[in-house]
Amino acid sequence: MSVDDRWHKSRPRSGEPVCREHEKVPTSVHGDGDQWQVRWRDAAGHQRKRNFARKGSATSFDAEIRSRLDRGTSLDLAAGRQSVGAYARSWRADLTLRPSTTERLDRVFRLHVDELPLGRTSMAQARPSHLRAWVKDRAEVLAPSTLAVVWSNVAAMFNAAVLDRVIGVSPCTGAKPPAADKRTRFVPDVDQVRAVAEALPERYRAVAWLAAGCGWRRNEILGAELGALDFLRRTAEVRQQLMAVIGQSPYLAQPKTPTSYRVSEMPEVASLAVARHLELFPVAAAGIWDRTDTRKPVRRHAELVFTTATGAPVHPAWWAKIWRTAADKAGIPKGVGVHCLRHYYATLLIHQGADVKTVQLAMGHATPMITLNTYVGEWPDAAGRTRSIVDAAFGNVPSVRPAEVSQP
Length: 408
What we know:
The protein has helices at residues 55-71, 77-80, 84-94, 99-114, 117-120, 128-138, 144-163, 190-199, 205-214, 218-222, 268-280, 316-330, 339-351, 356-363, 368-375, 385-394; strands spanning 2-5, 8-12, 22-26, 36-41, 47-52, 229-230, 235-238, 241-243, 251-253, 262-265, 286-290, 298-302. By secondary structure, it is α+β, with helices and mostly antiparallel strands. A four-stranded mixed beta sheet has the order 8-9-11-12. A three-stranded antiparallel beta sheet has the order 1-4-5, with helices on one face. Strands 6-7-10 form a three-stranded antiparallel beta sheet, with no helix packed on it.
């Protein structure tokens, strides 16, 4: 490492011995750009350099780089000069995600980062003030809950940059998004569940009963095959889900989480609805890509329980239109999808005394904490329960007699 003067070079004075003092003469770049240059090799052995207008600044930077190299915390300054948008694209390219998640991340950064001032800022220059300005701008177009999700994606990207030694500190540490609103999720009552099921076209009526009676997700229902149903034992098994991304036909994929693989008990209302559906609309094998084994995707004929009138898989976007028409008739608010029937199923279990672990397994949540955080307000109030538990354990406690007064 060294601090060099780009504007001057030294050579022996004319007619003087070599051992005498050298004179400085202008170089070919004299007056062009900053005068002082620091050169060093980074942790990977690559040659780096950076110019400074003042020698003091160059000397301080040289000392800082030496210290970082000694501690093993040197930064990749070349990577730090690329824009936030460019680094985000390379970061996403290195992630191993579901195609649907990849599509969502690309959409988040394309719409809310790349073309905004934050996306054009270099990684090394991004500051908490830039993040605060970005949050303020996005808060005008995004709901707080949506902004919280977008923020988490951007924060994850900056955290990865810290680990990659592109930047020293994440600018997100000095900023935060507005608190998400605490609006209560919509849970339909039993009359609305019946109403929306009746309002759906007969070909899709059983979808509502699988959602409300088994707590299945929309994509789990649309991806269910005939072999997953056991009418003798009245059970249904989640083995896969139907996914769709822009520019591709729907395909079969693994369930959302490892705990999403589950066997659900079908209540009579659900089993009868599905049996009636199969009677009216017999299963016909439909050609579809099966990517449940991500290493060996295959094209096969799947015996999907729910298909279109032409025998094709039901695209989730097309399903949304069918649902909205029925939901309007049932008095379900706009913006509320079939997932509300899954909420109905969970709250019904809770109100009937099911514990957190039981609800978690029935819903296919990854952890009990997700279940608790999602439905914490649905469990009965614990006020007074500790007293009743202790009283039940000890029974009748003898009354306490007042202390006898001693006589003088």
